[in-house]
Amino acid sequence: MARNRKSTKKRVDWSDKEHAEALIEQRKFLWDEDYVELLARRIGIKPGKTIADIGCGLGYLSYTYGKFLEPKGRYIGVDVNKKLLHMARKAAARRKMGKLFRFVQGGALSIPLEDESVDVAMCQTLLMHLKEPESAVKEMIRITKKRGKVVAFEPSWEAGVGWNNLREPPIKERLEDLEFLSRIWEGQKRLGEGDVRIGERVPYLFMRNGLKKIQALKNNKVGWALIPPYDTPELKQRIKMTLSSLEKQKNKTSGEKRKEYLEGKRCYMAGGGDAESYKQAVRRRTGRFQRYNEGMMKMIRKERFYSVSTGPFYVIIGEK
């Protein structure tokens, strides 16, 4: 049974240099400024209010929404990782926001804040990583004042679709890929390693735990877009990230590939697949993606590669 499979997966340390830098890069252009202002109004983030950011990491939400709290509001960032909190405090000091912001160590399942002590409890890409996301929702509700807001920014990887001008896979291949990935994602969930498809489920979790006036919104941007001539700061950053990712894939050692294979197999089988099906699927995908990645790199360097893909990033708001 799935619970007896030994994990080879190592928990990601987001405070190490490589992962921290990747986290910063990924979030640079995640939200449009005018949409952030709209969300701040919808959520009720304004001067004098107190917001808690659960699983705050480097404090991304602090500098995204903190400015709406000035001059007398408060932002409280909560995270289990001491190193990330140290980095977040330093970043807040550089922005001269140290008096407005406070960072405390603690987990999402036992938030170190008093009952009904904040006006808004929020999290971004936290629930997707938890074995017990509903327990975290309950804790966020506990610390929120009556008529306060609970907010979750969460994705759904399974809902993503896309198109590019390099290769359009036949329907059979697309369905095979969907089954392959869905089994891995389902396996991760069954193994208690998070749910990357949680976005659509969050409104139900909110409703089941007594929140009212639930709104299900999403980011105004598509998931990913590469449109020549790549001449805006956002497109330049995306091209840089894409080429870096392709180079890493190309230069993986046999040991890294083996570890990735075994980790995928563990999740695939936990999701209801069998070893032979996994082996055949990986064989098909490996050759195909190698050719595709090489072609993509060439076309990007000639500024001829076009790609648009959607991956819903939901904003779920509930009132206590």
Automatic annotation (TrEMBL):
Pfam families per record: Methyltransf_11
SUPFAM superfamilies, from UniProt? S-adenosyl-L-methionine-dependent methyltransferases
Ranges for the Methyltransferase type domain? 53-151
Q: Which residues cross the membrane?
A: none
**Source domain of life:** Bacteria
Print the keywords alphabetically.
Methyltransferase, Transferase
The Gene Ontology terms for molecular function here are: S-adenosylmethionine-dependent methyltransferase activity
One of this protein's GO BP terms? methylation
Q: What is this protein called?
A: Methyltransferase domain-containing protein
The scientific name of the source species is: candidate division TA06 bacterium
